[in-house]
């Protein structure tokens, strides 16, 4: 949906009990809480991704893994800002846009299996988190121009972490086409869309 439909779409005019806005951005990193320093957040993020002088830097707690996510909430267009100011909670408060990777990490503890694999894929960006039990093994975003490339990164991570996809379930936060789901089923025990 383009920005031209934002003010005419009824869903953007309503108020909701809970509003969550996910930014599909690769400009994010995790820092252990004990090492996090708000004053050096820009330098920390700049060390792992290219930042523009105009990028706004924010941070948010990831308590389930004892970490802080540092991210840029600046995107090429200001659509996320406009949505956060338009779609309000029932109490009138604005939603805070957070990186999709933050939502992926939040979903990891909800997986019931020992190998926890949660991903999102949209607009050429794969957000992937892998954990075993309560130990986070990987949290990263990958530029993947097509779903085949996204699968490559998933299987590369599985191989490097020595996890067997045949006994693992992969959970996606974003919708999968029938072909994408069937492609994953060739390798994974189960594929779930959460």
Walk me through what this model shows.
The protein has 194 residues and is of the alpha/beta class. It has helices at 41-46, 79-86, 100-107, 147-160, 178-185; strands at 15-16, 22-23, 28-32, 57-62, 67-72, 88-89, 98-99, 115-122, 125-132, 135-143, 169-172, 190-193. The strands form 4 sheets. A 5-stranded mixed β-sheet has the order 10-9-8-11-12, with helices on both faces. Strands 3-5-4 form a 3-stranded antiparallel β-sheet. The radius of gyration is 17 Å and the shape is globular. The two termini are 22 Å apart.
Produce the secondary structure layout.
Elements: E1 15-16, E2 22-23, E3 28-32, H1 41-46, E4 57-62, E5 67-72, H2 79-86, E6 88-89, E7 98-99, H3 100-107, E8 115-122, E9 125-132, E10 135-143, H4 147-160, E11 169-172, H5 178-185, E12 190-193
Parallel strand pairs: 1-6, 2-7, 8-11, 11-12
Antiparallel strand pairs: 3-5, 4-5, 8-9, 9-10
Summarize the structure.
The chain is an alpha/beta fold.
Radius of gyration: 17 Å
Spatial ordering of strands, largest sheet? 10-9-8-11-12
Number of strands: 12
Q: Give the overall average pLDDT.
A: 89
Reading the helices and strands in chain order gives EEEHEEHEEHEEEHEHE
> Helical amount among residues, as a percent range?
10-25%
Shape: globular
Strand content: 25-35%
- Main sheet specs: 5 strands, mixed
Question: Whole-Å distance between the termini?
Answer: 22 Å
Given helix and strand content, the structural type is alpha/beta
**Low-confidence segments:** none
Number of helices: 5
Provide the descriptors you would attach to this structure in a database record.
three-stranded antiparallel sheet; alpha/beta; five-stranded mixed sheet; 5 helices; 194 residues; 12 strands
């Amino acid at each position: 949906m383009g920005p031209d439909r934002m003010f005419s779409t009824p869903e953007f005019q309503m108020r909701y009990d809970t509003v969550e806005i996910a930014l599909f951005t690769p400009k994010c990193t995790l820092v252990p809480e004990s090492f996090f320093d708000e004053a050096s957040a820009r330098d920390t993020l700049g060390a792992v991704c290219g930042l523009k002088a105009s990028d706004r830097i924010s941070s948010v707690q990831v308590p389930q893994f004892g970490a802080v996510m540092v991210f840029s909430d600046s995107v090429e267009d200001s659509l996320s800002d406009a949505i956060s100011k338009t779609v309000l909670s029932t109490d009138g408060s604005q939603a805070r846009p957070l990186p999709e990777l933050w939502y992926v990490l939040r979903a990891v503890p909800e997986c019931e299996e020992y190998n926890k694999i949660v991903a999102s894929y949209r607009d050429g960006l794969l957000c992937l988190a892998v954990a075993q039990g309560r130990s986070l093994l990987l949290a990263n975003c990958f530029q993947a121009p097509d779903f085949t490339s996204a699968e490559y990164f998933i299987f590369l991570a599985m191989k490097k972490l020595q996890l067997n996809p045949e006994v693992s379930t992969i959970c996606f936060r974003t919708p999968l086409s029938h072909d994408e789901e069937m492609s994953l089923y060739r390798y994974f025990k189960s594929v779930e869309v959460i």
